[in-house]
Amino acid sequence: MRVILAEDSTLLREGLIRLLAEEGHDVVAAVGTAPELVEATARHRPDVVVTDVRMPPSHKDDGLRAALEIRARWPDVSVLVLSQYVENRYATELITGTGGNVGYLLKDRVAQVDEFLEALERVASGGAAFDPEVVRRLLTRTSHPLDALTKREKDVLGLMAQGLTNARLSETLHISLSSTEKHINSIFDKLGLNGEAGMSRRVLAVVRYLSS
Asked: How would you classify the pairing of strands 2-6 and 102-106?
């Protein structure tokens, strides 16, 4: 996998470069500012970009706005945001402006390296990966969640937003696999996603959930 890293902390950036190289990935560029991220993406067209939110030059939301520009100009480039912050406005625009290929993880909540690598692979493969805290904060911005869904269906969809498989969903909610599948099919029905293929239906359901 060809990766571009955008992180203004030299220590963290170098650590990520080493980690990804050890896993067999090709870090084609590692930059410390948002403009450099856009320039590097235009030059290298990577499979996935990993970026922080608050980066130079303003140290505000430059990294997230650069991610939005990348998704608009090169929709085939996947984006994984890795940050300490949830910037509601641009995060929502990034997540709801695509049918997949995007993730948002909080640095302090990535407990294990494997979690990060799994999320990276999932996003690069066209899926989605969202930290549950990101999901919670984005949903609190509105008083209109998907009212057609039952509480259990919302629980299932919230876990789908984290990228859990049906088997993991069953284990987490302590319900049978067949019950999980019924809840998911009901979610697809209520969201009008029956005409889509399997993985894209999951991604589209998550997108609609976060944009509700």
From this structure: unpaired
Per-residue pLDDT of the chain (212 residues; tens, 9 = 90+): 999 999 999 999 999 999 999 999 999 999 999 999 999 999 999 999 999 999 999 988 999 999 999 999 999 999 999 988 887 777 777 776 655 789 899 888 776 788 899 999 999 998 888 887 777 676 555 444 467 788 899 889 888 887 788 999 999 999 999 999 999 988 888 877 765 555 567 777 776 666 65
Distance between CA atoms of 177 and 169, rounded to whole angstroms? 8
The residue extents of the domains of the chain are: 2-139, 151-210
CATH 3.40.50.2300 fits 2-139, yes or no: yes
Specify the amino acid at residue 172: T
Going by C-alpha positions, the residue among 153, 156, 104, 106 that lies closest to residue 130 is 104
Measure the CA–CA gap between 40 and 15, rounded to whole angstroms. 19
Closest CA to 129 of 50, 192, 75, 64: 50
Pick the CATH number of 151-210 from 1.20.1250.20, 1.10.10.10, 2.60.120.10, 2.160.10.10: 1.10.10.10
**Helices 34-44 and 62-73: angle between axes, nearest 10 degrees:** 20
Please state the pTM of the whole predicted model: 0.69
Q: Rounded to the nearest 5°, which phi and psi values hold at 32?
A: -115, 0
Write the DSSP symbol of residue 8: S
